[in-house]
Amino acid sequence: MKCAIIGSTGWMGVGVAARIASAGHIAILGSRQLSRSKRLASKLPEIVELSPDLFQASTNIDALDEAEFVFITVPMPAHKETLELIK
User: Fold this and answer.
1) Which residues, at least 6 apart from 44, have a Cβ–Cβ distance to it below 8 Å?
2) Which neighbouring-strand residues pair with 59?
């Protein structure tokens, strides 16, 4: 299963992504900035000792197009802005 994590570069998103990947699913790391998502996708597999194939860098919007399931992991003050962006 492919799971998008909207706002994956924060501490909550990293934890959710690691748990998704440890269950054998693809964690699509969504971010407002693709460069941040790519940086996380290159470092996280080694940190959590999982295959890089389980992590995919993406923007928040593009992550939605590929996902079967979506997690929103942004801080409460950013919920309204994020939901407006992805609706």
Assistant:
1) 14, 17, 18, 29, 50, 55
2) 31
Supply the DSSP string of 2-53, one letter for each residue.
Answer: EEEEETTTSHHHHHHHHHHHHTT-EEEEEESSHHHHHHHHHHHHHHHT--GG
> Beta 2-6 vs 26-31: how paired, if at all?
parallel
Complete edge-to-edge strand list for the sheet that includes strand 26-31: 55-59, 26-31, 2-6, 69-72
pTM (2 decimals)?
0.92
For 39-59, write each residue's pLDDT tens digit.
999 999 999 999 999 999 999
